[in-house]
Design goal:
alpha+beta, 13-stranded mixed sheet
């Protein structure tokens, strides 16, 4: 099965899910409303692709030189495994596939590949599909759900290509990601009741970073796909339990400082690097090294205005993001970011709507 057939198959399945699900094209807006401030101001398909498809390059062991990555090798190996999924699953072991990738049956770090599948692909990917559909509708695209399906599946597919790097061989992770969780995410978030629950009860939002191309190294810096989730306490509606997740997992609290503005604080681990744990078999299986992480966030109506993250990574100590129009006194359509290292280069940059930001590095 070649690439064209795989893409055609994925697209047809996703469209069929969407067409036969009630309320698939609702007029209600849950995740994108066209706010002219914060990270929602920057939200668009390219923003999603740069943050989502290249999420893995946040690991210190990965290269950020996105114009030099071995896309051809990664794409060929991905097609080989997606083109014959049952063979790959059989070689890997059907029970291993189900318990490690699909169902939450393994709770060892080495076998919990199912966790990002649910958190990032099913819930995060589903919310992204819904937000992109709303973005396309807001910008008057015809049949916005079709554009959203195409964008969502492309960023998922390219994410797998980037993760593959120069590996040639058996892998089942993209089979679970694309054929199960990515398609299921579109189906799940085609229901208005699901979108309403995650929006109103859990306040799910995209709080991704401000992806930028650094000069003169031509690296993609300050990118990463992240989601926030909050449950406001019924007995004290100024306080909420708070979660922030992507390559990290922070837990903490949010406090309303105004009717429409909140401050959130979270602590937890973040993935700092990944390594192969199964070198004997024909498949490549990864797990993560972790470091500590802490973050402070300021948002308005669920659109992130500013954040500062500290981590125990070997290189990066602090990451600062200030999004456009964060301060009422200044109507400024650019965002600012900085990466403060423990060692290595300092990075600074600005971001703008519709195009990647620009960054510079200073030794």
């Amino acid at each position: 099965m070649d690439l064209q057939k795989i893409i055609f198959f994925i697209g047809i399945v996703a469209i069929q899910f969407n067409l036969f699900i009630p309320n698939a094209n609702s007029n209600d807006k849950y995740f994108y409303t066209g706010k002219d401030y914060g990270n929602e101001y920057l939200y668009n398909p390219l923003y999603v692709i740069l943050n989502g498809s290249y999420d893995i390059i946040q690991f210190e062991s990965n290269s950020r030189k996105i114009f030099e990555l071995p896309y051809g090798i990664g794409n060929a190996n991905l097609i080989r495994n997606l083109g014959n999924p049952f063979h790959s699953i059989k070689e890997y072991g059907t029970w291993n596939f189900l318990s490690n990738e699909v169902f939450p049956l393994t709770f060892r770090k080495e076998g919990m590949q199912w966790w990002p599948n649910y958190a990032m692909h099913l819930i995060g990917g589903g919310m992204t599909y819904a937000a992109l559909e709303e973005w396309y509708d807001y910008n008057n695209f015809p049949q916005p759900y079709l554009f959203s399906i195409a964008t969502t599946m492309f960023y998922h597919y390219w994410n797998e290509v980037v993760e593959m790097e120069d590996y040639r061989g058996l892998t089942v992770d993209p089979i679970a990601d694309i054929y199960i969780f990515d398609i299921a995410s579109i189906a799940l978030f085609s229901f208005d009741d699901v979108k309403k629950f995650f929006h109103e009860e859990l306040n799910l939002a995209d709080w991704s970073l401000q992806p930028s191309i650094s000069i003169p190294s031509w690296e993609l810096q300050n990118n990463g796909q992240y989601f926030s989730i909050r449950w406001w306490l019924p007995f004290y509606n100024k306080l909420a339990l708070f979660g922030y997740y992507g390559l990290n997992g922070l837990g903490g609290v949010s406090y309303k400082i105004k009717t429409d503005e909140s401050i959130s604080l979270g602590l937890g681990p973040r993935g700092s690097s990944r390594y192969i744990i199964d070198t004997a078999s024909s498949s490549r299986q990864y797990t993560l090294n972790f470091a500590w992480n802490a973050g402070l966030f300021w948002d308005k109506n669920n659109s992130l205005l500013a954040s500062i993250l500290f981590s125990g990574q070997e290189n990066n100590l602090c990451n600062i993001n200030i999004y456009p129009n964060s301060f009422d006194l200044v109507n400024f359509k650019f965002g600012f970011w900085a990466v403060i290292p423990r060692k290595g280069n300092y990075y600074f940059g600005i971001s703008a709507k519709y195009i990647p930001g620009i960054g510079v590095s200073i030794k």
